[in-house]
Amino acid sequence: MPLIFRNATYMTRISDKFVYEIEQDFTNESSACHSGELCDKVMTLVWSSPTICQARLICDNLSQGVCVDHGINIYLDIDEQPQPICMENYTLETNMNPRGKTLTLSLWHLRNVSFSIHCYFWCSTTGLIPVIDFGRNSSQVKLYWRP
Fold it and tell me: How far apart are CA 123 and CA 18, in angstroms?
């Protein structure tokens, strides 16, 4: 079941059984933000298992102008500076500690900018990537930001 993210901050608990597909496609999207020139949407992924997991985020498709007129920033801790993803196929790796560790994704863009972002996220307790089965019992979950 896809999770749909609108103009607010959303949290979702993650599992080590899934690969999460994160995508956004805007075509001159002006209705998504009404309060100024810079628009952003925030998605927080929460790890609540009692064991450490190895988290990985890789963006295999970033449109032209990423980190100029749109982008995705990663916050590993509330007080940390954001880590922008500005290159395709760059892999962000971090450990998520037991019970309540979060990873926050902030999608930002200037008003009236067309762009697309496509990433995968997974958290593993075994060091292996969860198997992606596109059939009936799929282990892939889509996460969307939507206006």
Answer: 8
